């Protein structure tokens, strides 16, 4: 989950809605996600090495895959991600586990009141809207602060990203507030994301469509962070490509080293949406998009 700031004028809204209709027709077309057909071939459930329960693809309680690594990509992230999960969030329905399975070296999940150790408040942000909206900052603002406080050569990779850790809260729209009350989170800077509309099929009462699934929010945050740090490849960013129906275009794209991370954004973290895309397509093969309640929510 996370909030996005959506621009408010009516004109802007209809433009957002029009653009959204195009994206909704084929939401993952632009993203560089490994072919998910490998998952469709897996009929049997596997047994989790840790809890021994029967699972499909991965264990959503131990965040451990039950299929071989040939069936899913691994993603390397430029910073560490901690996810704090609400104890009553239903494991099987949350998308937080996707991040931990796909980027095991960089993502850790805590079930509240378990809590990540925050060693450096300046290098850590909470991706969540502050109650006091004046205190919210954008990803772009993180870079402004960096320019003011630090003039180390940008050639040194460690200094390209102004933070080292981002915390996300994994819970429903209603549960999130109870975790946010924790004083340790209140001491962190709150970052809000740019406009993005959720493709999550799970309907949540009263939540608007810009309330993202956790995995969507993590992906969005990393794309913004990377784009401000290093730019975005023109070809990747071309919205016109969405008009074409290019569902056959898929990418066996796995980022495994720092060198690839240091390129302009061209999809390095898109595979975080690998299981999300597979499940989205499965749900949409069973149900008509226009009839799913989750997509009937207003975009604003
Ligand atoms: Zn398990």
Automatic annotation (TrEMBL):
Catalytic activity: a uridine in tRNA + S-adenosyl-L-methionine = a 3-[(3S)-3-amino-3-carboxypropyl]uridine in tRNA + S-methyl-5'-thioadenosine + H(+)
Localization terms from the record: Nucleus
Biological processes, Gene Ontology terms: tRNA modification
The DTW domain, residue ranges: 55-288
The EC number(s) this enzyme carries: 2.5.1.25
Molecular functions (GO terms): tRNA-uridine aminocarboxypropyltransferase activity
Tree of life domain: Eukaryota
Transmembrane segments: none
InterPro entries from the UniProt entry: DTW (IPR005636), tRNA_Mod/Golgi_Maint (IPR051521)
GO cellular component terms given for this protein: nucleus
Entry keyword NAD: no
Keyword vocabulary terms for this entry: Nucleus, S-adenosyl-L-methionine, Transferase, tRNA processing
Pfam families noted in UniProt: DTW
Top-level class of the enzyme under EC nomenclature: transferase
Function according to Swiss-Prot or TrEMBL: Catalyzes the formation of 3-(3-amino-3-carboxypropyl)uridine (acp3U) at position 20 in the D-loop of several cytoplasmic tRNAs (acp3U(20)).
Family: Belongs to the TDD superfamily. DTWD1 family.
Protein name per UniProt: tRNA-uridine aminocarboxypropyltransferase 1
Organism: Cardiocondyla obscurior
Organism taxonomic ancestry: Eukaryota, Metazoa, Ecdysozoa, Arthropoda, Hexapoda
């Amino acid at each position: 989950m996370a909030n996005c700031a959506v621009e408010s004028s009516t004109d802007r809204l209809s433009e957002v809605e029009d653009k959204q209709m195009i994206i909704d027709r084929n939401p993952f077309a632009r993203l560089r996600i490994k072919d998910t057909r490998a998952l469709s071939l897996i009929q049997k459930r596997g047994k989790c090495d840790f809890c021994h329960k029967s699972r499909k693809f991965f264990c959503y309680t131990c965040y451990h895959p039950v299929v071989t690594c040939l069936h899913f990509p691994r993603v390397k992230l430029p910073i560490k991600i901690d996810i704090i999960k609400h104890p009553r969030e239903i494991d099987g329905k949350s998308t937080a586990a996707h991040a931990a399975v796909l980027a095991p070296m960089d993502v850790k999940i805590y079930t509240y009141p378990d809590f990540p150790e925050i060693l450096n408040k300046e290098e850590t942000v909470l991706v969540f809207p502050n109650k006091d909206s004046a205190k919210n900052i954008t990803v772009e603002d993180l870079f402004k602060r960096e320019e003011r406080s630090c003039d180390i050569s940008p050639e040194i990779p460690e200094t390209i990203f102004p933070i080292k850790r981002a915390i996300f809260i994994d819970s429903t729209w209603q549960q999130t507030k109870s975790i946010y009350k924790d004083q340790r989170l209140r001491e962190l800077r709150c970052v809000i994301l740019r406009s993005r509309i959720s493709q999550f099929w799970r309907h949540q009462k009263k939540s608007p469509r810009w309330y993202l699934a956790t995995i969507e929010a993590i992906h969005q945050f990393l794309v913004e962070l990377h784009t401000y740090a290093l730019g975005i490849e023109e070809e990747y960013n071309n919205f016109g490509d969405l008009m074409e129906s290019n569902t056959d275009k898929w990418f066996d794209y796995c980022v495994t080293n720092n060198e690839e991370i240091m390129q302009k954004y061209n999809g390095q973290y898109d595979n975080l949406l690998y299981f999300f895309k597979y499940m989205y397509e499965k749900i949409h093969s069973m149900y008509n998009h226009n009839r799913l309640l989750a997509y009937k929510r207003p975009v604003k």
